[in-house]
Amino acid sequence: MDMLHGQQNSAIVRRLSPRGFDSQLSEKLPLRILLVEDIALNQKVIQQMLLRMGYRTDVANNGLEAISALRQQPYDFVFMDVQMPEMDGFEATRKICQEWSDNYRPWIVATTAHAMPGDREECLGAGMNDYISKPIRIEAVAQAFYKYQASHDLTQENQQLTAVTKNDELAYQSQIAPELILDGAIDDETFQALKDMLDDEEILTELINNYLEDAPQRLLMIHQAIENQDAAELCSFAHALKSLSVTIGAMDLAEICQELESMGDAGNTVGASTIASQIETEYQRVEAALHSQYLNKVND
Q1: Is the alpha carbon torsion for 69, 71, 74, 77 positive or negative?
Q2: Which helix (H) or strand (E) element contains residue 231?
Protein backbone atom coordinates (compact mmCIF):
# COMPACT_ATOMS: atom_id res chain seq x y z
CA MET A 1 0.00 0.00 0.00
CA ASP A 2 2.94 2.32 0.71
CA MET A 3 4.28 1.70 -2.81
CA LEU A 4 0.88 2.26 -4.44
CA HIS A 5 0.51 5.60 -2.70
CA GLY A 6 4.14 6.59 -3.34
CA GLN A 7 4.71 6.77 0.38
CA GLN A 8 7.82 5.58 2.22
CA ASN A 9 7.49 3.70 5.49
CA SER A 10 9.47 6.36 7.31
CA ALA A 11 6.84 8.93 6.42
CA ILE A 12 4.12 7.17 8.38
CA VAL A 13 6.05 5.83 11.37
CA ARG A 14 6.03 8.26 14.27
CA ARG A 15 7.43 8.38 17.79
CA LEU A 16 5.12 6.42 20.09
CA SER A 17 3.37 7.74 23.13
CA PRO A 18 3.77 5.68 26.34
CA ARG A 19 0.30 4.25 25.98
CA GLY A 20 0.80 3.29 22.36
CA PHE A 21 -2.68 4.28 21.21
CA ASP A 22 -3.97 7.25 19.27
CA SER A 23 -6.51 8.77 21.65
CA GLN A 24 -7.35 11.44 19.07
CA LEU A 25 -8.30 9.01 16.33
CA SER A 26 -11.94 10.03 16.44
CA GLU A 27 -10.95 13.58 15.52
CA LYS A 28 -9.15 12.36 12.41
CA LEU A 29 -11.86 9.91 11.46
CA PRO A 30 -15.18 10.89 13.08
CA LEU A 31 -17.66 8.03 13.06
CA ARG A 32 -21.10 7.34 14.51
CA ILE A 33 -20.72 3.77 15.75
CA LEU A 34 -23.33 1.19 16.76
CA LEU A 35 -22.17 -1.91 18.64
CA VAL A 36 -24.49 -4.92 18.28
CA GLU A 37 -23.53 -7.52 20.89
CA ASP A 38 -25.60 -9.56 23.35
CA ILE A 39 -22.83 -10.42 25.85
CA ALA A 40 -22.41 -7.65 28.46
CA LEU A 41 -18.73 -8.47 29.07
CA ASN A 42 -17.93 -8.19 25.37
CA GLN A 43 -19.84 -4.92 25.18
CA LYS A 44 -17.66 -3.42 27.90
CA VAL A 45 -14.42 -4.63 26.34
CA ILE A 46 -15.20 -3.30 22.87
CA GLN A 47 -16.59 -0.02 24.21
CA GLN A 48 -13.46 0.51 26.29
CA MET A 49 -11.24 -0.25 23.30
CA LEU A 50 -13.09 2.27 21.14
CA LEU A 51 -13.14 4.82 23.94
CA ARG A 52 -9.35 4.72 24.07
CA MET A 53 -9.40 5.59 20.37
CA GLY A 54 -11.71 8.51 21.11
CA TYR A 55 -15.04 6.92 20.14
CA ARG A 56 -18.25 6.65 22.11
CA THR A 57 -20.66 3.98 20.92
CA ASP A 58 -24.34 3.17 21.14
CA VAL A 59 -25.24 -0.43 21.97
CA ALA A 60 -27.92 -2.81 20.70
CA ASN A 61 -28.34 -6.25 22.27
CA ASN A 62 -29.56 -8.07 19.15
CA GLY A 63 -30.47 -7.62 15.49
CA LEU A 64 -33.95 -6.31 16.18
CA GLU A 65 -32.60 -3.56 18.43
CA ALA A 66 -29.96 -2.75 15.80
CA ILE A 67 -32.55 -2.19 13.08
CA SER A 68 -34.64 -0.10 15.46
CA ALA A 69 -31.59 2.04 16.31
CA LEU A 70 -30.78 2.56 12.62
CA ARG A 71 -34.33 3.71 11.96
CA GLN A 72 -34.00 6.34 14.69
CA GLN A 73 -30.70 7.82 13.52
CA PRO A 74 -27.99 7.15 10.92
CA TYR A 75 -24.77 5.37 11.80
CA ASP A 76 -21.56 5.22 9.82
CA PHE A 77 -20.19 2.02 11.29
CA VAL A 78 -21.76 -1.09 12.85
CA PHE A 79 -19.92 -3.82 14.74
CA MET A 80 -22.32 -6.76 14.30
CA ASP A 81 -22.09 -9.91 16.42
CA VAL A 82 -23.12 -12.96 14.41
CA GLN A 83 -24.93 -15.20 16.89
CA MET A 84 -27.50 -13.43 19.08
CA PRO A 85 -31.01 -14.12 20.43
CA GLU A 86 -34.14 -12.59 18.88
CA MET A 87 -32.39 -11.91 15.55
CA ASP A 88 -28.86 -12.94 14.63
CA GLY A 89 -26.32 -10.85 12.77
CA PHE A 90 -26.84 -12.52 9.42
CA GLU A 91 -30.58 -11.89 9.34
CA ALA A 92 -30.17 -8.35 10.68
CA THR A 93 -27.61 -7.54 7.98
CA ARG A 94 -29.82 -8.92 5.22
CA LYS A 95 -32.73 -6.79 6.45
CA ILE A 96 -30.51 -3.71 6.64
CA CYS A 97 -29.37 -4.31 3.06
CA GLN A 98 -33.00 -4.59 1.98
CA GLU A 99 -34.15 -1.45 3.78
CA TRP A 100 -31.22 0.90 3.15
CA SER A 101 -29.59 1.59 -0.20
CA ASP A 102 -25.81 1.44 -0.68
CA ASN A 103 -25.42 5.19 -0.22
CA TYR A 104 -27.26 5.24 3.13
CA ARG A 105 -26.32 1.86 4.53
CA PRO A 106 -23.79 1.73 7.40
CA TRP A 107 -20.50 -0.11 7.05
CA ILE A 108 -21.11 -3.45 8.79
CA VAL A 109 -18.28 -5.47 10.34
CA ALA A 110 -19.00 -8.95 11.69
CA THR A 111 -17.58 -9.78 15.12
CA THR A 112 -17.65 -13.45 16.00
CA ALA A 113 -15.90 -16.08 18.05
CA HIS A 114 -16.19 -18.44 15.07
CA ALA A 115 -12.93 -19.24 13.35
CA MET A 116 -14.00 -21.89 10.87
CA PRO A 117 -13.15 -21.97 7.16
CA GLY A 118 -15.86 -20.23 5.18
CA ASP A 119 -17.12 -18.05 8.03
CA ARG A 120 -15.71 -14.91 6.45
CA GLU A 121 -17.32 -15.73 3.12
CA GLU A 122 -20.65 -16.38 4.85
CA CYS A 123 -20.48 -12.97 6.54
CA LEU A 124 -19.65 -11.18 3.32
CA GLY A 125 -22.35 -13.14 1.50
CA ALA A 126 -24.95 -11.86 3.98
CA GLY A 127 -24.02 -8.28 3.02
CA MET A 128 -21.43 -7.46 5.69
CA ASN A 129 -18.45 -5.39 4.59
CA ASP A 130 -15.79 -6.98 6.78
CA TYR A 131 -15.11 -9.65 9.40
CA ILE A 132 -13.24 -9.57 12.74
CA SER A 133 -12.58 -12.70 14.77
CA LYS A 134 -12.80 -12.61 18.57
CA PRO A 135 -10.96 -11.86 20.76
CA ILE A 136 -10.94 -8.50 19.03
CA ARG A 137 -7.55 -6.78 18.81
CA ILE A 138 -6.84 -3.11 18.36
CA GLU A 139 -5.06 -3.66 15.05
CA ALA A 140 -8.09 -5.52 13.68
CA VAL A 141 -10.31 -2.56 14.55
CA ALA A 142 -7.82 -0.21 12.93
CA GLN A 143 -7.81 -2.37 9.81
CA ALA A 144 -11.61 -2.25 9.70
CA PHE A 145 -11.52 1.54 9.95
CA TYR A 146 -8.90 1.66 7.20
CA LYS A 147 -11.10 -0.36 4.85
CA TYR A 148 -14.02 1.93 5.62
CA GLN A 149 -12.08 5.08 4.90
CA ALA A 150 -10.49 3.62 1.75
CA SER A 151 -13.96 2.74 0.49
CA HIS A 152 -15.25 6.24 1.19
CA ASP A 153 -12.30 8.02 -0.44
CA LEU A 154 -11.07 9.69 2.73
CA THR A 155 -7.78 11.59 2.98
CA GLN A 156 -4.41 9.96 2.41
CA GLU A 157 -3.36 10.82 5.96
CA ASN A 158 -6.19 8.80 7.39
CA GLN A 159 -5.45 5.97 4.95
CA GLN A 160 -2.24 5.26 6.91
CA LEU A 161 -4.30 4.54 10.06
CA THR A 162 -3.77 0.79 10.10
CA ALA A 163 0.01 0.85 9.77
CA VAL A 164 0.42 3.59 12.37
CA THR A 165 -1.87 1.99 14.94
CA LYS A 166 -0.42 -1.49 14.50
CA ASN A 167 3.15 -0.19 14.75
CA ASP A 168 2.13 1.71 17.89
CA GLU A 169 0.77 -1.36 19.59
CA LEU A 170 3.60 -3.70 18.59
CA ALA A 171 6.21 -1.22 19.79
CA TYR A 172 4.33 -0.63 23.03
CA GLN A 173 4.03 -4.34 23.74
CA SER A 174 7.75 -4.85 23.05
CA GLN A 175 8.57 -2.37 25.84
CA ILE A 176 6.74 -4.27 28.57
CA ALA A 177 7.34 -7.69 30.06
CA PRO A 178 4.38 -10.01 30.59
CA GLU A 179 3.08 -9.54 34.11
CA LEU A 180 0.70 -12.44 34.29
CA ILE A 181 1.41 -16.14 33.87
CA LEU A 182 -1.91 -17.87 34.21
CA ASP A 183 -0.82 -21.52 34.20
CA GLY A 184 -2.33 -22.54 30.87
CA ALA A 185 -5.95 -22.00 31.83
CA ILE A 186 -5.69 -18.43 30.51
CA ASP A 187 -3.85 -17.66 27.30
CA ASP A 188 -1.11 -15.21 28.30
CA GLU A 189 -1.03 -13.33 25.01
CA THR A 190 -4.79 -12.83 24.82
CA PHE A 191 -5.08 -11.75 28.44
CA GLN A 192 -2.10 -9.41 28.18
CA ALA A 193 -3.60 -7.83 25.04
CA LEU A 194 -6.85 -7.27 26.94
CA LYS A 195 -4.95 -5.77 29.86
CA ASP A 196 -2.92 -3.48 27.60
CA MET A 197 -5.99 -2.39 25.68
CA LEU A 198 -8.00 -1.51 28.79
CA ASP A 199 -5.03 0.13 30.54
CA ASP A 200 -7.14 0.40 33.70
CA GLU A 201 -6.82 -2.02 36.63
CA GLU A 202 -10.25 -1.16 38.01
CA ILE A 203 -12.03 -1.85 34.72
CA LEU A 204 -10.07 -5.09 34.19
CA THR A 205 -10.98 -6.27 37.70
CA GLU A 206 -14.63 -5.45 37.00
CA LEU A 207 -14.54 -7.44 33.75
CA ILE A 208 -12.98 -10.46 35.48
CA ASN A 209 -15.59 -10.33 38.23
CA ASN A 210 -18.34 -10.03 35.63
CA TYR A 211 -16.99 -13.12 33.90
CA LEU A 212 -16.85 -15.07 37.15
CA GLU A 213 -20.46 -14.09 37.88
CA ASP A 214 -21.80 -14.73 34.38
CA ALA A 215 -20.01 -17.97 33.46
CA PRO A 216 -21.60 -20.15 36.21
CA GLN A 217 -25.05 -18.99 35.06
CA ARG A 218 -24.20 -20.04 31.51
CA LEU A 219 -23.03 -23.41 32.82
CA LEU A 220 -26.32 -23.88 34.63
CA MET A 221 -28.22 -23.05 31.44
CA ILE A 222 -26.14 -25.61 29.54
CA HIS A 223 -27.02 -28.32 32.06
CA GLN A 224 -30.71 -27.38 31.87
CA ALA A 225 -30.65 -27.57 28.08
CA ILE A 226 -29.06 -31.01 28.24
CA GLU A 227 -31.63 -32.17 30.79
CA ASN A 228 -34.43 -30.90 28.55
CA GLN A 229 -32.74 -32.41 25.46
CA ASP A 230 -33.03 -29.02 23.79
CA ALA A 231 -30.30 -28.93 21.15
CA ALA A 232 -31.06 -25.39 20.00
CA GLU A 233 -30.75 -23.99 23.53
CA LEU A 234 -27.62 -26.06 24.08
CA CYS A 235 -26.04 -24.53 20.98
CA SER A 236 -26.98 -21.00 22.06
CA PHE A 237 -25.76 -21.31 25.66
CA ALA A 238 -22.53 -23.06 24.68
CA HIS A 239 -21.83 -20.30 22.15
CA ALA A 240 -22.43 -17.61 24.78
CA LEU A 241 -20.00 -19.22 27.23
CA LYS A 242 -17.47 -19.68 24.42
CA SER A 243 -17.72 -16.01 23.49
CA LEU A 244 -17.23 -14.91 27.11
CA SER A 245 -14.28 -17.25 27.55
CA VAL A 246 -12.52 -16.13 24.38
CA THR A 247 -12.74 -12.52 25.54
CA ILE A 248 -11.09 -13.28 28.88
CA GLY A 249 -8.47 -15.55 27.27
CA ALA A 250 -9.80 -18.94 28.42
CA MET A 251 -9.05 -20.57 25.08
CA ASP A 252 -9.08 -24.22 26.20
CA LEU A 253 -12.48 -23.70 27.80
CA ALA A 254 -13.73 -21.99 24.65
CA GLU A 255 -12.55 -24.93 22.55
CA ILE A 256 -14.57 -27.40 24.64
CA CYS A 257 -17.59 -25.09 24.42
CA GLN A 258 -17.18 -25.19 20.63
CA GLU A 259 -17.58 -28.98 20.72
CA LEU A 260 -20.83 -28.63 22.64
CA GLU A 261 -22.03 -25.84 20.36
CA SER A 262 -21.37 -27.95 17.27
CA MET A 263 -23.24 -30.86 18.84
CA GLY A 264 -26.25 -28.65 19.55
CA ASP A 265 -26.08 -27.11 16.09
CA ALA A 266 -26.30 -30.62 14.64
CA GLY A 267 -29.47 -31.21 16.70
CA ASN A 268 -27.84 -33.76 18.97
CA THR A 269 -27.59 -33.89 22.77
CA VAL A 270 -26.39 -37.49 23.16
CA GLY A 271 -23.12 -37.47 25.06
CA ALA A 272 -23.45 -33.77 25.86
CA SER A 273 -23.28 -34.44 29.61
CA THR A 274 -19.74 -35.78 29.26
CA ILE A 275 -18.58 -32.67 27.45
CA ALA A 276 -20.42 -30.47 29.95
CA SER A 277 -18.45 -32.17 32.74
CA GLN A 278 -15.23 -31.33 30.91
CA ILE A 279 -16.40 -27.73 30.71
CA GLU A 280 -17.08 -27.71 34.46
CA THR A 281 -13.58 -29.03 35.18
CA GLU A 282 -11.89 -26.56 32.85
CA TYR A 283 -13.92 -23.66 34.25
CA GLN A 284 -12.65 -24.52 37.73
CA ARG A 285 -9.10 -24.18 36.39
CA VAL A 286 -9.96 -20.83 34.78
CA GLU A 287 -11.62 -19.56 37.95
CA ALA A 288 -8.64 -20.60 40.09
CA ALA A 289 -6.17 -19.01 37.67
CA LEU A 290 -8.04 -15.70 37.61
CA HIS A 291 -8.23 -15.59 41.40
CA SER A 292 -4.71 -16.71 42.22
CA GLN A 293 -2.82 -14.99 39.44
CA TYR A 294 -4.73 -11.72 39.22
CA LEU A 295 -7.51 -10.94 41.69
CA ASN A 296 -5.61 -12.04 44.80
CA LYS A 297 -2.56 -10.13 43.59
CA VAL A 298 -4.62 -6.94 43.25
CA ASN A 299 -6.24 -7.39 46.64
CA ASP A 300 -2.84 -7.90 48.25
Answers
A1: positive
A2: helix 231-248
